[in-house]
User: Fold this.
Amino acid sequence: MRSNQVAVVGAAETTELGVIPNASQLQLHADAALNAIADAGLKLSDIDGFATAVETPQQVCHYLGIKPTWVDGTSVGGCSFMLHVRHAAAAIEAGLCKTVLITHAESGKSMIGKAPRSIPADSLQGQFEAPYGVYGPPSMFPIPVLRFMKTYGITHEQLASVAVVQREWAAKNPRAMMKDPITVADVLNSRMIAYPFRLLQCCLVTDGGGALILTSADRAKDFPRKPVYIMGTGESAETPMVSQMETFNSSRAFKTAGPLAFREAGIAHEDVDHLMIYDAFAHLPLFGLGDLGFMPHEETGKFIADGNTRPGGKLPLNTNGGGLSYMHSGMYGMYALQESVRQMRGIAPAQVANAKISVCHGVGGMFAASGTIVFTNER
Amino acid sequence: MAEPQRARPKPTPETQHFWDGTKAGELRLQRCDACAHIYFPPRPFCPSCASRKVSIFKASGKGFLYSYVINHRPAAPGFTPPYAIAVVELDEGPRMMSNIIDCPQTPEALELDMKLEVTFQALDDKITLPVFRPAKE
Assistant:
């Protein structure tokens, strides 16, 4: 795909984030969509392409009154929205539609109008993982961590520092759920969830949503907001079973999606001004820094512990506070994308000065899938 | 009311041989007749070369501890925390999720790379689960 042919012209989160006891999941989709439509200065009738995950596209299109000519229901977990951005950019370039709306919403905390997750007993996960006591992401996502630590000499303190640094970013963000400063000792003394991870190394559980509107770069200059161009994209999938990953020393899906996006954008790692790596749990930024090629995996823990990703550091990472401190409704990818767009527009609460290129990297399931988007504000 | 039960696998036509094996005290894997690739979980073709000519064989049941978590909360139905959820790498190559029995569920006792051997736990008259314990020799 060619760089910078498609741009984000509308971006918004739900009016509220956190605990939202007065709206169903479907209504949160609508709230995010209406906010994004207003942000772009559009009407719902201008939307001719639509993508969402978990909820079906037909459900959300009907609720909003959208009549699409292009539909994408790719649902591969929390990075689905990175894949939607990639697919939408290709569809717009191919002339299948002109203006795409992508929505995410989840009543992850209040569980209003949200189907519970279940694992069928005759699925491969139901036969070969569920009987051993896995029970939700906290019991599954950290399973590779001890091997990763042993292979690369990563310490518990380094993994704790991920949460500490992200809390520093969250403190600058009025919409972040958790803003009080924490120390490495606080993290290592917090309640044990699934060894080696403790409470402060696991994501929040919240309600919320977000929406994006994309159109061709040529049209984008006529919109009220500064366009944010899609410079490069990548995607991949590996396995829904964490036990069946090729290795616990890296993520194959990360190593496929990330480099694809960098190559398409034609950028080197030193060109990256701002970075988002989906952090459902504290090890993900380490996997991401290594698998995206920023540095050898061995150096990732020390890089974060030394403060290189904190406010003022040389590689600002997860500047909204991340899934650990900002919010995490269950599928966090949309919020990472929103923060990249804010940074490229120059309006983020913790704005990185003069940032021109932002890389936004997502995970789906427990390393099951991945999507990477490179954004720029210069064409 | 009955105690909440541990999740029970429900075999499919492609996995029935595996569950027949565990009931008979065998850990069964599959090997591709065309390229010799050994794989898990079960399927009637080779995920490496796509050949449909594959054989089922009895694995050694030996392996080592590749990685694990010790789950504290929330606990799955039928489990008393803390309990380890492990991934075992078999000597034949494939990895599988399992539990480690006859071993304290602590970071000190559960050493990565420790040698393990398979043993079997009957959940009911239909399903027997393969689990692992520290190897004897």
Summary: The CA atoms of residues 346 and 353 of chain A lie 8 Å apart.
